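Hi P.,

Sorry for the delay on this. The queue was packed all week, but I finally got your sequence through. Input first:
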Amino acid sequence: MPNRHRPFVSRLDYVTLLFYFALVLIGLLAVFSVEYRSTDAGLFLHGKNYTNQTIFLGISLFVGLIILFTDSKVFASMAFLSYLFGIILLIVTIFLGKNIKGSHSWLQIGPFSFQPGEVCKIFTALALAKFLSLTETNFKTLKHRLIGVGIALFPAVIIILQNETGLALVYFSFILALYREGLPNSILIIGFSFVVLTLTSLLLSQLTLFIILSLLLTMALALLWKRVLKDRALRAVIIGAYGIALLFSQVVVPFAFKKVLQGYQIQRIYSMLGQDVPKSYMKTVAADEDDDDAPAKKKDNNYNVMQSKIAIGSGGFIGKGFLNGTSTKNNFVPEQHTDFIFCSIGEQFGFLGSAILICLYIGLMVRITILAERQRSVFSRVYAYCVASILFFHFAVNISMTIGLAPVIGITLPFLSYGGSSLLSFSILIFILLRLDADRNVVIR
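Then the structure:
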């Protein structure tokens, strides 16, 4: 029997559903283990984070059920409209947003607060999939590549204006989906070069870096002298690359650290690099003293990561056991129910439990990639890769943060970290994917 004529229930991918439920249940247990005390009057108490997370999960499953019974073509037809709605929502948040921990990225409607940037990830994934699936789109042309990158990164620009740099960086993960659709290798090389240039800009003085870049230019011209004289295009590329590198290292990076990044973020980045904050950026750091949340941020820029590593390391190979985590029980790790939820797994279930959790994430992402490659529709394939890219970025950066391999930028761990916006947005991403995969033999535009 052809796939499209089989009953809807039999067309759902239960492997992906199994991964999803395993992760959200582990997340509930992790949040519960952080907050529960033996002296509590009951199991589910009002105001507890694990109680709220259970409610959020119920809402997410209800929304997911609605998505599963929605015609799959609706997501394609509403893609651009939803993206426009998301952009408007982000702009409104700049002016009406609620200030939480120095970020102006929260919108409050009645008693509920949520981050439009979290929800907009869904709209961006759909809009990108819609654009690339249009018959008139030729992703081999520079024009359409720039449009695709613009769709992916425009929300990030608005989110940066909300002082939410960490969430804005998530939108760069869409580049992975674009790469699957034909973005040339040169883009990845250029992107990697900018990362290297950023790091060298932070580790070296501007004068030293200027001398190094000038020496590299001289060497390139000397080695390719004959070709440079004959080939005007090559000459333009070499000199243009030198000019862009100078502009980026001498202007863009200093501007970002002085005007865009928060003081505590600068301190965390330099702490990760093992360096002191340069005097030129100290004014930016000092400006955070006027922030109401400054004492918590400035307490010790290595404190969060240090306590997280202590908690994870104390778990050993098999862990201390469920509800027996010393660091998590005594609130030694700040934000241990949100950004640092992974340390509760490491402390209670040790290396073995952490490895199993990582395998579950990898298994989910591999499964989503398999689903993507079996889609007949370009729309469904691109959307699936967008979901995988978002999950990978959150997973890799969050765990790297907790073990000190990346600066603390406020990235949640999918399905585990406490938060209604996060859990709902990731759940919607998964359930839309399941709905599209159920109609994988149907061409959706």
